[in-house]
Design brief:
This protein is α+β, with helices and mostly antiparallel strands. The protein has two domains: 44 residues, no CATH class; 64 residues, no CATH class. It is 38% helix and 17% strand. The strands form two sheets. Strands 2-1-3 form a three-stranded antiparallel sheet. Strands 4-5 form a two-stranded parallel ribbon. 8% of the residues are buried. The mean pLDDT is 87.
Amino acid sequence: MIKYTVQCAKSHAFEGWFKDSATFDKQAKKRQVTCPVCGDTKITKAPMAPRLGKSVSKSTSHEGAARIAEVAKALRAEVENNCDYVGSQFTEEARRIHYGEADARGIYGEATLDDAKALDDEGIPVLPLPITRSDA
């Protein structure tokens, strides 16, 4: 993953994360990147300075990893405590909710990567839950 500072034609600067430089170029060319301030889709990379700093110590790196794991576990617990588990019916139930055929509510369950991509293609937002140590 790579983080770019990008800007719209009106010079609104914002950050974006992309798989690689080619992914940014492809998405920008297809006008798939949108300015969060004005909605403009003519996006370019903003001038950036290289990051020059001291390297991160191993202990700092481990602390960061531990904090990420802690946040991931809390996120998963929040979803499990506040959303309905629909198991293998996730894809179907997400569509039903999206198209107004079922009551709107938070749900979680299982879906294949292809099913998740199909939901995303239909404009149905999906987000994989982080795997936590208790899942293993």
